[in-house]
């Protein structure tokens, strides 16, 4: 079942008071490396699919630590492509952030927005990703705000985020982050050496 409206609509979003200036992202991809929801060459020999929720703190650790390390070690060498998928289950702010990311993707700025979201995580359902804050993050990522505002109100975009969640459930994903590489799937963040060994083994196939 695909919902054309936000399944969290009945739950109010708290607001955080005070001025908010978005923090800079940990990962800033070089020109041409980030395309759509992928980070890395389209013909990279190994593809790692990562399912995340923007409010998930472990996902934040992945995006701010492990992902930049993979970027430097494999992505910039043309060996790995990281594909992102949404599994927004923690609450309204997760859903709203994912919709915002999709609308940034429409302007070829998915990774600019995605990285800034994780740089500005702060609690779950506490207002860190309120509409006002998401708009400031979008602005810091360089999106055209008029087009972005129109996009986030589009039911089709919202349905797409829900479709990702439905796909995650079909795959048996129950938490985030979940990593998929070939026929291997794991939740959480593997030890760096274990993850590198798995990628290296895939590169040898």
Give the SSE map:
Layout: E1 34-35, E2 38-39, E3 46-52, H1 57-73, E4 80-86, H2 92-105, H3 110-119, H4 131-140, H5 145-152, H6 155-170, E5 178-181, E6 184-187, H7 192-203
Parallel strand pairs: 3-4
Antiparallel strand pairs: 1-2, 2-4, 3-5, 5-6
Helix pairs in contact: 2-3, 2-4, 2-5, 2-6
CATH topology: Glutaredoxin
- Give helix and strand order, one letter per element, not per position: EEEHEHHHHHEEH
User: Could you describe the largest sheet, including whether it forms a barrel?
Assistant: 6 strands, mixed
Q: Quick one: how many beta strands?
A: 6
Number of domains: 1
CATH class: Alpha Beta
Low-confidence stretches: 1-15
CATH architecture: 3-Layer(aba) Sandwich
Neighbour order of strands in the largest sheet: 1-2-4-3-5-6
Q: Structural class of the secondary elements?
A: alpha+beta
Write down the overall mean pLDDT.
Answer: 89
Q: What is the radius of gyration computed over CA atoms, rounded to a whole number of angstroms? A: 16 Å
Instruction: Give helix % range.
Output: 40-55%
Assess the beta-strand content as a share of residues: 5-15%
Please count the helical segments.
7
What sort of overall outline do the alpha carbons produce when their principal axes are compared?
globular
